[in-house]
Each structure stands twice: as C-alpha cells, then as structure tokens.
C-alpha cells in the first residue's frame, strides 16, 4: 500500500468517526441550509449541553468540516464550504442523524429542500433532468453551464432579465441527491437559481428545517420550463 493510500484510509476513518456520533451529525444537519449558527443553537439542535457542544464543535473544526466566523464576542459556525455540503449530502447525512420515515415533514423534505444553498429533492432532480434533456444545461471541463436558450426561456417565465443574463457566467456541478439518488444542480449556478426562485416566490422556506415549499404559481411556471413533479 502506498503512503497516499494509507493516508486516505486514515482520513476516511476519521471522517467516519466524526459522523458516527449522533450529536455531531445533528449539528452538521442543522447547518445544511447554508446559514451560520451560534454554538448555543447547535447545542439545542443536538440535545446536548454547552460543554459537550463545545467539544463536538472543536472536533468538527479540527476535522475540516466546519468554519467559524467571530463577530465581537460571538462565534458563528457554518459548513466549511459547498464541497463539504455535497459530500455530506452524498453520504446521506440526514439518515445518519435520524432515520428517514414516510412522515409528512419528511415528505416535504424529499419533495424540495436546500442542499446547503441550492435546490435538492425531487424538484431539484426534475429540474436537472429536464434542462439536461432540453440542452439548456451542458457539461464542460469547468462544470455545468446554462445555455442561452435557457436564459431566454427564464426571461419569458418572469425572471428579471439582468438576473437571468448573468447565469451563463456561473458554473454549476452535479450533486448526488441523497433521497433521489440522482443528480441535481449544485455549485454557484445552483445557488443562484435557487436564490432567484425564492426571490420570485416560486419557492418559500418552511418555518423549520430545510424543506422548500413550492407555490402553485411557481409549479405552474416551472412546468412551462419543463420541470414537473409526479
């Protein structure tokens, strides 16, 4: 075994150990919506005390999964980056933190949710599939890119033209969806698409958790763009 292979083995073992603790998994899950949160809020999400939360957060920081922003006396924790969120999503972190059950809240999560800051779930996969099929998304060495016909269609569907015209400058990436086991659009392009749909009212955030709730108008307009939910 080479030295590099040996290092990878120990890195994977350490990452597995970080995720094996339910409290740490719950903290990571709470940060999957892309927001930064203080230690006290993460302690409540993990149902642990302040001292225990502090120890878990240090492990996650040392393991490279978290970043921290200091503002005055306060410290706000966030995922270390979009790549970490994609890895956690692919590893099905929510199933590690709590088993997925066919409850109404989980049904909403499976239908549409944020994966860090981009659209995931059945709706995110449907968008990726439809736009790849239409040639509106194409893959290059730099990742996924939106085509000009897609920009024109978005403008016709009600997107502000300056916003839509900037999208081809952004690159996306294929992100494996943990409930659908298919791809949705991640990276800067995925973040921009999701932010615009929230601004337009096509989607809104659920009061709690990561679920995104499509509006009737949003579903109608997405249908004109080839994106349909069963």
At a glance:
Pfam families: HTH_20. The protein is 53% helix and 18% strand. It is α+β, with helices and mostly antiparallel strands and 230 residues long.
Write the layout of secondary structure elements.
Blueprint: H1 3-20, H2 22-30, E1 37-38, H3 39-46, H4 50-62, E2 66-71, E3 74-79, H5 82-90, H6 93-97, H7 104-111, E4 113-115, E5 118-120, H8 121-133, E6 137-140, E7 143-146, H9 148-156, H10 161-166, E8 173-176, E9 183-186, H11 187-200, E10 203-205, E11 212-214, H12 216-224
Antiparallel strand pairs: 1-3, 2-3, 4-5, 6-7, 8-9, 10-11
What can you see in these coordinates?
Keywords: DNA-binding. This is DNA-binding transcriptional regulator, ArsR family. Residues 4-99 form the HTH arsR-type domain. This protein has helices spanning 3-20, 22-30, 39-46, 50-62, 82-90, 93-97, 104-111, 121-133, 148-156, 161-166, 187-200, 216-224; strands at residues 37-38, 66-71, 74-79, 113-115, 118-120, 137-140, 143-146, 173-176, 183-186, 203-205, 212-214. The chain has 230 residues and is an alpha+beta fold. It has two domains: 3-97, Winged helix-like DNA-binding domain superfamily/Winged helix DNA-binding domain (Arc Repressor Mutant, subunit A, Orthogonal Bundle), CATH 1.10.10.10; 104-224, no CATH class. The protein has a three-stranded antiparallel β-sheet. It has a two-stranded antiparallel ribbon with strand order 4-5. It has a two-stranded antiparallel sheet with strand order 6-7. Helix 2 crosses helix 3 and helix 3 (39-46) packs across helix 4 (50-62). It is elongated. Residues 1-7 and 96-103 have low confidence and may be disordered.
């Amino acid at each position: 075994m080479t030295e590099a292979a040996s290092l990878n083995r120990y890195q994977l073992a350490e990452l597995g150990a970080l995720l094996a603790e339910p409290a740490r998994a719950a903290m990571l899950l709470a940060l999957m919506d892309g927001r930064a949160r203080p230690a006290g809020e993460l302690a409540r999400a993990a149902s642990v005390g302040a001292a225990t939360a502090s120890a878990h957060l240090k492990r996650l920081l040392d393991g490279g999964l978290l970043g921290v922003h200091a503002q005055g006396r306060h410290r706000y924790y966030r995922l270390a980056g979009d790549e970490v969120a994609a890895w956690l999503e692919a590893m099905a972190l929510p199933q590690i933190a709590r088993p997925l059950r066919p409850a109404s809240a989980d049904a909403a999560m499976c239908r549409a949710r944020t994966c860090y800051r981009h659209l995931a779930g059945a709706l995110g996969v449907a968008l990726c599939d439809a736009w790849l099929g239409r040639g509106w998304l194409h893959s290059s060495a730099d990742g996924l890119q939106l085509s000009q016909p897609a920009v024109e269609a978005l403008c016709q569907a009600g997107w502000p033209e300056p916003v839509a015209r900037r999208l081809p400058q952004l690159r996306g990436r294929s992100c494996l969806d943990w409930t659908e086991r298919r791809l949705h659009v991640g990276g800067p392009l995925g973040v921009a698409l999701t932010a615009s749909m929230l601004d337009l009212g096509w989607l809104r955030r659920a009061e709690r958790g990561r679920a995104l709730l499509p509006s009737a108008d949003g579903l109608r307009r997405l249908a004109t763009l080839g994106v349909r939910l069963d």
